[in-house]
Amino acid sequence: MINNILQGDSLSVLKCIPDETVQTCITSPPYYGLRNYGVSGQIGLEESVDEYITNLVKVFREVRRVLKESGTLWINLGDSYAGSGKGAWKVKDKQRHTYVPDPDSPQIKIKNKDYKSKDLMGIPWRVAFALQDDGWYLRSDIIWHKPNAMPESVIDRPTKAHEYIFLFSKSPKYYYNNEAIKEPAVHGDPNPPRGSIGVIGQKNKGSRVDKKRGSFNGKCKDLVFRAIRDMRNKRSVWTVTTKPYKEAHFATYPPDLIEPCVLAGSKENDTVLDPFFGAGTTGLVAWKYNRNFIGIELNREYIKIAKRRLANVQMSFT
């Protein structure tokens, strides 16, 4: 089970995993009404948002069971707009690996009276609040800012260039390694110190290197140590460019996006779970940082893609 991909629907397969065996779960469930992956039983094609949320709550309730008491859950979700369904997409051309419009697709047709055509449905937050009501501790909302977001043909609202990552914990006290993901501090100095080759300290104004001892002295030494200290707790807006995987005809989050989740949420040799494994990015990052992983995926074609990706890092599968 460890370092393997389990085929089946998430809810059923999760029931086979023992209690409290996973340190963190990092995943991106299918977004509501945006893709038809051509597999029976897939989440995301429910007739109502409420049904979609209910199904996700059931899956993540099982995730909470398999997490250790110190465990965390990181969920990446994007939003959807209400409409007729004619703007939906269906994976059709598997040779070209592109999305093509499916005008007959009904998945975005919202029956709930609370949604009007063109409404932004706020699904990420609705899911987050539902999980909170189910017992999860909602700890952080992280904005994934996409500097290379796809253009949209809309002219009556801004182009969407972000998604969400929600951090949940199973318990009030949990494992979170903030030191592992600290970032450089940003100072608002209008005249930042400059050196001839980009080093800290203005040219000719700091003490020089002691050539005999091969070490810094005076002001230059102080500035170097200040630079080492000038790290801060990671902020909640993460700017990460999207990086499509050429074999995948569906959306995959980039490895850079979830590296902080893996590093902050687990230690070496811990187990990382992804119940919506897709092309295997979570497993790839987990393996890179000496973590174990468990992947669950409904679509056999996606499992083949994930295995090929992971084979590139010399992993073997049964």
UniProtKB/TrEMBL annotation:
Catalytic activity entry: a 2'-deoxycytidine in DNA + S-adenosyl-L-methionine = an N(4)-methyl-2'-deoxycytidine in DNA + S-adenosyl-L-homocysteine + H(+)
Segments of this protein annotated with the region Disordered: 185-212
Q: Which family, according to UniProt? A: Belongs to the N(4)/N(6)-methyltransferase family. N(4) subfamily.
- A GO MF term: DNA binding
Identify the EC number(s).
2.1.1.-
Report the protein name in the record: Methyltransferase
In its UniProt record, which GO terms are filed under biological process?
DNA restriction-modification system; methylation
Q: Which Pfam families match?
A: N6_N4_Mtase
Query: What SUPFAM superfamilies does this protein's entry cite?
Result: S-adenosyl-L-methionine-dependent methyltransferases
Mind listing the UniProt keywords for this protein, alphabetically? DNA-binding, Methyltransferase, Restriction system, S-adenosyl-L-methionine, Transferase
Q: What class of enzyme is it?
A: transferase
Q: The organism sits in which domain of life?
A: Bacteria
Cellular component GO terms, alphabetical: cytoplasm
Where the record annotates domain DNA methylase N-4/N-6, the positions are 22-307
- UniProt cross-references to Gene3D superfamilies, sorted A to Z: Vaccinia Virus protein VP39
What species is given as this protein's source? Virgibacillus dokdonensis
> Would the keyword S-adenosyl-L-methionine be found if you checked this record's keyword annotation?
yes
